[in-house]
Amino acid sequence: MSENVLLAGNAWTAENSDFEQYLQIDLGTIKNITKIETFGRAHSFEFIREYSILYAVNELDYSYYKENDGIKSSTTAKASTSLAWQPSVSNYYQSLYINLRKVKKITKIGTMGYDGSFVTEYNVQHSDDGENWMSAFAGGGFANTDGASSYTDPVSGELFKGNSDGNSIHSNTFQTPIIAQYIRINPTRWRDRISMRVELYGCDYVSETLSFNGTSIVYRNLTQYPIRSRRDVINFRFRTALPDGVLIYSKGTQSDYFALQLVDNRLILNINLGSNVMTSVIAGSLLDDNLWHDVTINRFLDQVSFTVDRVEVKETIKGDFQQMDLDKILYIGAVPNPDEGLIIAKNFTGCIENFYLNETNVIFNLKSPPYDEEWNTFYKNYTMFNCPETNVVPVTFLPGTSQRTYVKLKGYEGVQRLNITFEFRTYQDYGVIVYHKFTSVGFFKIYLEKSKLLVEMATDTTPRLILDNFPIPFNDGLWHRVVFTISQNLITFSVDEREVKTTRLVKVFTGGLYYFGGLPPSVVFETSSSTTSSSNVNTGYVGCLRQISIDGNFHNPNDWKDNYCCKDTLRFDSCQMLDRCNPNPCEHGSKCKQTSTEFECDCRDTGYTGATCHMPLHPLSCQAYRNNHGTSQKSEVIVDVDGSGPLKPFPVTCQYYHDGNTQTIIHHMNEDPTPVDGYDAPGSFVQIITYDGDFPQIEAVINRSVECRQFIKYECKNSRLFNTPVANPDIWTPNTWWVSRQNQQMDYWGDSLPGSMKCDCGILGTCKMQDKWCNCDSGLDSWLADEGFLTDMTYLPVRALRIGDTGTVTDDKEGRYTLGPLVCSGDNLYENVVTFRLPDAALTFPTPNDLSHSWDIYFEFKTTTFNAVILHSKGPTDYIKVEIISGNLIKFQLESGSGPMGVNVQTSARLNDNEWHSVHVEKNRKQARLVVDGSQSSTVQQPAGQVRTIELNSELYVGSGVDFRDGYVGCLRALMVNGIMLDMKVAAEAQTYGIGMGCFGKCDSGPCLNNGTCDEGYDHYTCDCRFTAFKGPICADEIGINLQSNSLVKYEFRGSYKSTIAEKIRVGFTTTEPRGFLLGIFSNKTGEYLTLMVSNSGHLRLVFDFGFERQELIFPDQNFATGQYHDVQISRMDSGTKLIMKVDNFEPKIFTFDVKASADAQFNNIQYLYIGKNETMKEGFVGCISRVEFDDIYPLKYYFQENRPKNIYSYPETLVEDFCSVEPVTHPTEIPEVRPAPKLDEEKIRRIYRNTQSAVLGAVLAILFLLIVIMAILIGRYLSQHKGEYLTQEDEGAIGCEDPNDAVVRGHTGHHVEKRREYPL
After folding, report:
1. I want to staple 1036 with a disulfide (CB 3.0 to 4.6 A). Which of 230, 1186, 1225, 1228 is the partner?
2. Torsions phi, psi for 238 (to 5 deg)
């Protein structure tokens, strides 16, 4: 194109501005184009900033132009340069592509920010061709084989830690180097905006390749030079398009073998070190994708690390041996015959690259055999030193596309026979794979429904037919080969060489088109009217297809051109399926199922629940079971001692006692008394003790218990136990001993001491023979026994018993042992309790470093607060927070790079009821979950997109927010993170401000007096005085009334009258009159009454008649009319037959009455209560009365209420409240706690003072400031000074005199005037 054309006034302007617009140029003939220039519309601001180029030699086959073999190299991203990659938009969809020009070996990546912006997290992908990408790992991605929570996301790969500032380089090392030409870096977190400078460290990759065709083999003869190793390292790369094949095999004459084989596109390592027990380790998946895969096997003793594509699986090899002995033949790529450890016997077809056996480069040795190392010589048959490209071209039908995807292929039209073959691989349950419409009436369709492969067919002569001949699922991610044939009256359907034939009257004429992977809209409309068993049968196919053949004609996907719909819905030359179940995201041995977009976990029979089977179903301990169920009965319980941790649940017996003690009993299979006879050599009888739990589980119970014990007993007849006494402790030869859990031979028996070599009787000196240390060392011809409890928790439980000196079966020597179950008491988890007394107090713990994709936090709380933060931790943007809101709602909030998430559980009952409640929060790859009190739960789904680990850099604050605000007051216990207890007691010892050990509130000291109810607040308390005769902050203020002789207070019992068989009466008074009516209770209906008064002699006199006999009781030991205050308490009990009168601190008077069975001791139909006098009396009590109480009635308190009840009144009508000269009781003032000064970062202070430039600058500024101040003072003094003269008439002698009189006496010159001058100082 000439410059004149470029600068012409016209321009191409599309009608619509969108991504579907193209400018198509026909150059007439094929030309070599080296450069392109563009120009916007003249005299406007319309121009193109970015575009793509497609080219073709015809109008059909267009290809995208790609610079530098497909990916543009970024040379400005080098970490040491002053430039950086900064995309115009900072979001999760930005990627930096790097083309290394050729395959390189990359061992490390370094990143750096720019101008204050930096990337804090990113993932790395690599590719050999720029099209098919694999995620990179640093080597820390572990497959989930033992219930642990560590897991590497198969979607995003490992998320690498980036920079913490914009000026320093942060490096990540790849444990297994990346071998690739193309690198793609995707930032997932950043500060301010995406800014990256990148440096890749590595070297040129030297490839030694060997190809295998199914008959090829490489071998080494080990008969003369065997492998006897305690450590082995094997490294290699391989690629294949087949799912099965033997890669490595060898065995030895001592039953050792080593077998690495590809089975169903996964690598399986079977290994045996001579114990006749095989250990299998599985790693990798979808390995038959014809891409290069890295394999590393590292064995040391009985520990093996198996890494495939940088995802590591660790396993302990079973058996007692740790050395591998291989002395036959080592095979690579094939085996001549099936053998031990092999699952398949199919030879490997594909390529192997850079195969290293320990330090030996096997392929290099094959090229250049070492002449002086016969022991290290390898041989080969039918192999080639290259890796030819395969002619198998797969195509991927991608998920999540809004358009219908299908491929339209041609076949013979109008014939009466058809044959199609293809191979498919998928994880989907539904999807149409093939559809064909006949020229005659009808069609056939091969599709997936509920993971089964079905054929639906209809013709004009045959009604709708569904072939359902294969009940197994086909969505297993494996390749399956399908052959489908229709001929006259015969249908043949074959899957994986399993053939089913159907004979019917069938005659069809084929159409010209076959649709693979889905149906176009027109065909969907036509078939939607047909009756189908499911609404999903017309769903498009998601997965991979290959080897498609129609009527014998192979259809290469590279030749499909425009015979498919739609753009970007297919991927050619690769099967880009993702195995979301490798590594297994499901925990605790649960099974993983998946589709093309998601995975699901089957938690059945695991003892766990949740989206990833992370949360335990069983209680943490017997104490937890008791707390949840409130039982006090002996129970058989399954416990999960570490919650979500790796230990499995196991059964125990829980024994509960009324004193609150709880015992955990772990049984074993040998608890009954067991005779031993015929084992004479020391320790020759071996009894391995098999418990209901394994030793890690039992050890966890012991570590959490307060104490543990195990009963042990040995009964003997002519059999010696320890062979005591022992003259030399270094030479101790017992016949019988027990073995600790650490496999130690123990030197003491029950109720004895470790290291004593004695039984209990030897410690106490009570053995049958005084010179022996055990009863069973007596050797007597009678039955004796040594027994007791083993209590040292360091050695429990007993792992084994070793018994000897029991002679032969024909002599008189005999023994019998009894070993009881392990019994542990208490649970330190629930003893780990702290109280938060102040809302700005908090415990801090180091940020848990295992909060990855799946984690949980458990705790129990007891509080009365309505709103508070219980847990909080945060990072630059991420955070976790658990809080209580409004007293009945628990809220769990978090942010882990995918947006804020929150889940609430609101309960119908109060959670701030000062009772214990449990909270369990969980975050996994699929959801966040909150469980309150073990039953009420709520979940929120993880937002779509990449799943990231949570990034926290603050400590975990327990009891408040990270700023010590909105704090919690109350008790906390049993705090666990991922099944590991956080010791709050230890933390409380170091952080004492506002926190105490144990659960103690303000009310525990009984601050509310006179039976006032204390309402706990933990940082405060309030006293409820409603049910007392007192008032005030602590229910100690008197409510009294000062009465004259004509005064009274009357209370009426209205409604249903009150009747009592037991009463509590209280009244306080002070008087100087020797007589007076204090209190009276009457019933006009029954004539029954009770009166309390001061008699004429000053004694207390109680008179009552309740229908069985009039009683008059005198309290004579004190004169109560002396003006002192007295407190009288009267209570009747035992069905009215017993009365106790207590006055002040005097000894209570107890009166009993002989009430006949026919008599009625009940005080019936009470109507009135009088204070001071009643209406029939002329003169009443003179003095002050308070504390009036009759059961739950407090008349004086009601009388002085703001809204006085109508059933209480007085004469005169208004009386004045009085405290009866009793001063209220007060508590000492609490000394407020003072928050300690914050801890200073001394290193940071040192760094500040080490900055000499700042110090010099500060010194110079200080000197300048000082000079300025001095100059200002001098200038001010100069301007303000006053120079001048003044006159004085003082006498010369008068100078210096103290007063005028003295001046007159001393004057000698007389008065005169003198001029004097004043000078400034």
Report:
1. 1225
2. -150, 160
Q: Which secondary structure element, helix H or strand E, spans residue 396, and what is its range?
A: strand 395-397
Does position 906 have pLDDT exceeding 80, yes or no?
Answer: yes
One-letter amino acid for residue 868 of the chain: A
Q: How far is CA 38 from CA 7, 49, 66, 281, 1252, in A?
A: 10, 10, 18, 59, 57
Coil/strand/helix, residue 924 = coil
**Cβ pair 176, 108 in contact under 8 A:** no
Q: What residues pair up with 1163 in beta bridges, in sequence order? A: 1060
Nearest partner of 1081 among 1169, 1180, 1177, 1164, judged by Cα: 1169
Tokens of residue 196, six digits = 């990256």
Q: Do 564 and 397 touch, CB atoms closer than 8 A? A: no
Which stretches does DSSP call E strand in 40-128? 54-55, 63-64, 96-112, 118-127
- Which pair of tokens denotes residue 852? 């990855």
Dist. CA 761–CA 772, nearest whole Å: 9
What amino acid occupies position 561? K
Pair of tokens at residue 986: 């230890």
Residues 6+ apart with CB under 8 A from 1016: 864, 914, 1001, 1002, 1003
CA–CA separation, 174 and 312 (whole Å):
13
Q: Give the DSSP H or E segment for 1247.
A: helix 1242-1250
Structure tokens at 1180: 């009443």
423: helix, strand or coil:
strand
CA distance between the termini of the chain:
98
Structure tokens at 323: 């050395």
Distances (CA, A) of 1245 to 1242, 1248, 1258, 1262: 5, 5, 16, 21
The span from the CA of 351 to the CA of 331, in Å, is 15
Reported as a single tens digit per residue, the pLDDT across 476-534 is 889 999 999 999 889 999 999 999 988 888 888 999 999 999 888 777 645 544 544 44
* Beta bridge partners of residue 666, listed in sequence order: 822
Which residue is associated with the tokens 């200073």?
1240
- Bridge partner list, 239: 351
Residues 560, 1254: Cα–Cα separation, whole Å: 72
Give the other-Cβ count within 10 Å of 390's Cβ. Answer: 14
* Angle CA 743–745–751, to nearest 5: 110
The 3-state DSSP class for residue 1120 equals coil
CA 542 to chain CA centroid, Å, is: 34
Instruction: Report strand pairing: 1064-1070 vs 1183-1190.
Output: antiparallel
Q: Which two tokens stand for residue 695?
A: 């030793």
How do residues 717-740 score in pLDDT, each as one tens digit? 999 999 888 888 788 889 999 999
Looking only at the bridges linking them, the beta strands covering 784-790 and 1284-1288 are: unpaired
DSSP 231-243: EEEEEEEEE-SSS
State how far the Cα of 873 lies from the Cα of 854, in Å rounded to an integer. Answer: 17
Encoded tokens for 4: 């004149």
The pTM score is 0.78
Rounded Cα–Cα distance for residues 96 and 114 (Å) = 15
Q: How far is CA 387 from CA 166, 211, 382, 383, in A?
A: 45, 5, 13, 10
The rounded distance, in Å, linking the Cα atoms of 811 and 776 is 17
CA–CA–CA angle 1009, 1011, 1017 (5° rounding): 70
